[in-house]
């Protein structure tokens, strides 16, 4: 994370050309972002995140953070010339914190609260993207050159050179994840990276390969996709998927609005489904170089059998839920090996 006290000025004579009131607002925002950055560092050092005992306490904290992020985005939009891309990156980091807060508390939240919170996070991301697009033309040449040079390895992996031809696409690569893609093989090698949360959103007929260990995975609005992922340290949260195959390992996996999907899981707690139908479950079957080490470090090296003990929160009867089933052995993928080389 870039030091908040060393942001480059938007122009070489910033202190002389900017309105004093605007400059005062910018400095106040940078101070707030710096304070939040220090709080995030301390949180990471302690390797713990807030976990709330009641839905009301979580919602109060979530709402507080959401209002704060909205305020920061509004201030940037009202005075674009006063802020830099570094300011946008730090607001994006605050949204990541909000995603992490939801992921680590979603297991105990009502399903409608999880869906509402996901929608809010998506709207915040969209608002930040819109502000980013407005800012890019003002720094078009220096910004695009810098991003294209730094992000070229990622573009090479997914074999999609058009990514660097769009200012908006370059901005999207600044946040971890794949969004708004159709018919592509998307590969992310997280080995050796201090990766937090990874997002898959609005994908159609794509194959996604995540090699390594993210902290959490958020999956939203996928159609006819295949997702093969290494172990997540925390949670996997899935919403609005259809006709997909997922190969996932995590401590907690919660699934909303899934239709006609197969899940190959390794999970320490019971998988949870809600508002889902025709979903089938089987054991985790993914292999790549170094996965044994990743599973061990994630404390997921042991097969607990929890993948077949699914809790359907919308089926409260004593008999088996009709919404899910165990995938018959003769229809399962027995072993699946992936790499970055054959993408």
Automatic annotation (TrEMBL):
InterPro entries hit by this protein: C-CAP_CF_C-like (IPR017901), CAP/MinC_C (IPR016098), CARP_motif (IPR006599), TBCC (IPR027684), TBCC_N (IPR031925), TBCC_N_sf (IPR038397), Tubulin-bd_cofactor_C_dom (IPR012945)
Database matches in Gene3D superfamilies: 2.160.20.70, Tubulin Binding Cofactor C, N-terminal domain
Region (Disordered): 1-52
Subcellular locations according to the entry: Cytoplasm
One example GO MF annotation: tubulin binding
Bias (Polar residues): 1-17
GO cellular component, one term: cytoplasm
Pfam family, one: TBCC_N
Occurrences of domain C-CAP/cofactor C-like (ranges): 161-315
GO biological process, one term: protein folding
Keywords linked to the UniProt accession: Acetylation, Chaperone, Cytoplasm
SMART domains linked: CARP (SM00673)
Record family assignment: Belongs to the TBCC family.
Quaternary structure and interacting proteins, as annotated: Supercomplex made of cofactors A to E. Cofactors A and D function by capturing and stabilizing tubulin in a quasi-native conformation. Cofactor E binds to the cofactor D-tubulin complex; interaction with cofactor C then causes the release of tubulin polypeptides that are committed to the native state.
Protein name stated in the entry: Tubulin-folding cofactor C
